[in-house]
Design brief:
The complex is a heterodimer.
Chain A lengths: L11 E7 L2 E7 L1 H6 L9 H14 L26 H7 L5 H6 L1 H11 L12 H32 L3 H16 L4
Antiparallel strand pairs in A: 1-2
Chain B lengths: L26 E10 L12 H17 L18 E6 L5 H9 L5 H5 L11 H4 L3 E6 L4 E5 L5 E8 L3 H16 L6 E2 L3 E2 L11 E8 L1 H6 L2 H10 L2 E4 L12 E6 L7 H48 L5 H16 L8 H10 L2 H8 L5 H17 L3
Antiparallel strand pairs in B: 1-5, 1-8, 2-3, 3-4, 4-5, 6-7, 8-10, 9-10
Classes of the chains: A mainly alpha, B alpha+beta.
């Protein structure tokens, strides 16, 4: 299909339905740009430049006024040494931890690349769920043990030996259930 | 897990060329790919040789122990062959065998070549980069690439429009592997992948469609635009960067975050693909009623060329086989069956051709051999 404005192949197509009337425009990339259309949508690379890199590269406040202070996101992953410029260049992260390290930068980028999605929906690994449930249980038990030890110490100090014996038995019971 | 020999049933085994299945006049195959990485290990391009070797060993051993041969029902085409999972270490495979795997869609071109490692600058990458593939035999419905871009790429494939079945196979294989491996996962981003375009479900569902009528009438451009608007990718016969050889198009989801596997499946198999199938069928009917003689002429010219040419390139063969395929499914050609046409599409690829002929062939020899093979198969001579 030819461009509406010139003889080039049309690669940008626009359809507007207004008041039940449909109008179509078929343009080449050059003419589309001239008419202010964004041809081709945005690639991942473009998204990185447009939505992540550019805002940081631009002045945050008019010249003469100091830019408001804001935390600088980390630029190097501790897990694998990948830097954010590395990611921008290759489009690939180096390890799982990169997702945590670069979360502030990756979040908006992924949102654009995945139709506005911010969070995973769908299958989860069963073992991960078991692992996190186990970690949560461990953490709860650890807190309970700390609390009992503190109260036991207080009871001994206050010479409340009967209460201390109850706390000691409870502590032994929990400790025998697993390592904390 | 077997490791000796190589694809014993290379001529008939592959599921995706099996004629039959739902909507097989338009849909060649349905494919589901899952990207998975092991927790606690760097992703491929950031890992050294030692780490890649360890990941390979872990994955290979867990794949062997996971009972994957039970995934998917056994193909009726080879009921006497017991299901098994074969492991192929690609470092040890000769180039022609790796090419054979690429042509069968069991590994990517990138996986065939291997990747340069940060700690091994020199040497032959193809024979040193630790990588492999597990293939479920006899029908190759399931395959798992190890150490491609992600540590694991699980692929399930079915002939015709059977995306739900392919997803069920991939999901089951994933469950079996996950019972033995800790996958990299985060509650916010889902399954963590090397490329953030795959993060979330890590799923790519794709359908290989034969759309000669839409191509002929130019309506394919509308389909491409609509697919793009719905955030779907349209690719050629051999995936990313390949041309739409022989009017074959792969349509797949691009969004992997914030959309469940079932939602992606329902969008594609329940909504979008049936519409494209119906569109292609309508264009085929219109062609028959309005330009029947021209269509029949095109089909028979292609058949004439294929049964008489003495030199054929892979590209020309694919295009002519595409015309003949259209003639067969529309009932214009009666003495050629769909399974033969489908098989020829694979067997005329360079590595398969050399395997069928039983000898190494240069490009010019391949053209002659290709023409000979096609003539023999279509004319049913030996």
């Amino acid at each position: 299909m030819k461009c509406d404005k010139c003889d080039n192949e049309a690669t940008v197509h626009e359809m507007i339905v207004k008041g039940g009337v449909k109008t179509e425009r078929h343009l080449c990339e050059h003419c589309a740009r001239e008419l202010g259309l964004n041809p081709g949508g945005a690639t991942l690379g473009q998204l990185i430049t447009k939505f992540v890199v550019a805002p940081q590269g631009q002045p945050l406040a008019p010249a003469g006024k100091p830019a408001p202070a804001r935390p600088t996101p980390p630029t190097t992953c501790r897990g694998c040494g990948t830097t954010f410029p590395d990611f921008k260049q290759t489009g690939r992260v180096g390890c799982s931890e990169c997702y945590t390290t670069f979360e502030p930068q990756l979040g908006p980028l992924l949102e654009r690349a995945h139709e506005g999605a911010t969070h995973h929906v769908g299958k989860r690994p069963t073992r991960w769920e078991e692992r996190s449930a186990r970690a949560e249980a461990d953490s709860a038990r650890r807190e309970r043990v700390d609390d009992l030890r503190r109260r036991l110490e207080q009871a001994v100090m206050a010479e409340q030996y009967e209460a201390a014996a109850v706390l000691r038995d409870e502590l032994r019971k929990i400790e025998s259930q697993g390592t904390v | 897990m077997a490791s000796e020999g190589f694809i014993p049933s290379y001529e008939t085994g592959t599921e995706w060329l099996r004629a039959g299945g739902q909507a097989s006049d338009v849909v060649m195959s349905s494919r589901v790919r899952l990207a998975r990485n092991l927790a606690g290990w760097r992703f491929g391009h950031k890992a050294g040789h030692g780490d890649r070797q360890k990941v390979l060993e872990i994955c290979r051993d867990r794949i062997a122990a996971a009972g994957l041969s039970s995934v998917g029902a056994q193909s009726s085409s080879a009921p006497s062959t017991p299901p098994q999972v074969m492991w192929i270490d690609l470092r040890e495979s000769p180039p022609i065998e790796r090419q054979l795997l690429v042509e069968r869609h069991l590994i990517s071109k990138q996986h065939s070549k291997g990747k340069p490692l940060p700690d091994l600058k020199s040497g032959d990458i193809e024979t040193t980069d630790p990588r492999g593939v597990a293939v479920a035999l006899p029908d190759e419905r399931l395959s798992i690439m190890v150490n491609e871009e992600d540590h694991l790429r699980i692929q399930a494939v079915r002939g015709g429009l059977a995306l739900a079945e392919a997803w069920a196979d991939a999901d089951r294989a994933d469950d079996l592997l996950e019972s033995k491996l800790d996958f990299a996962y985060s509650p916010r981003f889902g399954y963590l992948t090397c490329c953030p375009t795959n993060v979330g479900t890590g799923v790519r569902m794709s359908l290989m469609l034969h759309l000669p009528a839409l191509k002929l009438t130019g309506s394919i451009e509308k389909v491409k635009r609509a697919a793009s608007d719905m955030n779907l990718a349209v690719r050629g016969f051999y995936g990313e960067g390949s041309e739409a050889a022989g009017d074959f198009y792969q349509i797949s989801n691009q969004t992997t975050l914030g959309k469940s596997e079932e939602a992606i499946l329902n969008d594609l198999a329940g909504q979008i693909i049936p519409k494209i199938v119906e569109y292609e069928r309508k264009e085929r009917r219109d062609l028959i009623s309005k330009r029947g003689a021209a269509l029949e002429d095109q089909v028979y010219r292609a058949l004439g060329l294929l049964t008489h040419a003495r030199l054929l390139t892979a590209e020309e063969s694919m295009q002519m086989l595409s015309h003949v395929r259209l003639g067969v499914v529309m009932g214009l050609v009666s003495d050629v069956d769909l399974a033969t046409v489908n098989a020829l599409m694979l067997l005329t690829q360079p590595a398969h051709l050399q395997r069928v002929m039983g000898t190494d062939l240069d490009q010019e020899q391949r053209r002659a051999a290709r023409a000979q093979l096609i003539r023999r198969r279509l004319l049913k001579t030996t």
